[in-house]
Amino acid sequence: MSIFRSGNPTLNEKVFQNSLAGSSSGVMTERGTLNKFFFLSLMVMASAAFTWSAFYSGKDVTSWMIGGAIGGFIVAMVIIFKKEWAGYLSPAYGLLEGLFLGGISAMANAAFERSYPGIVSQAVLLTFGVVIAMFGLYRFRVIKATEKFKSVVITATLGIAVFYLLAMILRWFHIDIPFLHEGSTVGIIFSLVIVGIAALNLILDFDMIEQGAAMGAPKYMEWYCSFGLMVTIVWLYIEILKLLIKIAGRRN
């Protein structure tokens, strides 16, 4: 069972060990997981379109964004600890996360409308492009999810999480880390590294889904794994948008 290891905290070995032990109705398939992921994507896009439209209608979407971010985090935590509920809660996560993404995307688009027109559409296209490219690299085994590969990606991901946590704590004391937000050369290189690590997490997630289906995980794990993949893609999109914002800042 050592193959079940992912940098994504929603997809890991213990999840599959526990779910296989409790499997009682139906088994997970890759097609079923993909179908559910597409459904979650529609949920995200629908609610993102709502806050996007509201912003351009002159409404304050801050409360929607905050509510979506906090609500999405809470729902995600519940799903992680109660994976059997993923089928009921994953759509709610998609809707809540979409509220947040739609709001920050609209704000970024408006802020850089003159200096970097189409910044959000480029971020979306780049995100889809990276996902498709990484899936192709995984499917054709150009990149293999070996144990060494997994260990490196997991370590890097945990390092980023700790770094972001420390940055948040420092900000409470009015101490900012410049390259996190500024478009300096170091800042752009840093964002590129983060985007790269987020992309590599997709390889681990694809491997997790494939192995889960091969091992006959219970049917509800399709929802859980599609939710976990969505978590990674949302992170990837946010990091790509941040990278483009830094680049746009250099143009001003």
3D structure, described in words:
The protein has one domain. 75% of the residues lie in helices and 0% in strands. The chain is built from 8 helices and no strands. Helix 2 (30-56) crosses helix 8 (221-251), helix 4 runs parallel beside helix 8 and helix 5 (119-139) packs across helix 8 (221-251). Residues 1-7 have low confidence and may be disordered.
Write the layout of secondary structure elements.
Blueprint: H1 13-21, H2 30-56, H3 62-81, H4 86-111, H5 119-139, H6 147-172, H7 185-214, H8 221-251
Helix pairs in contact: 2-4, 2-8, 3-4, 4-8, 5-7, 5-8, 6-7, 7-8
Q: What does the overall shape look like?
A: globular
What distance separates the N and C termini?
52 Å
In N-to-C order, the SSE pattern is HHHHHHHH
The profile of the biggest β sheet is:
none
Low-confidence stretches: 1-7
Question: What is the number of strand segments?
Answer: 0
Roughly how many Å is the radius of gyration? 18 Å
Name the descriptors.
252 residues; mainly alpha; globular; disordered N terminus
Task: Summarize this entry quickly.
With 252 residues, the chain is an all-alpha fold.
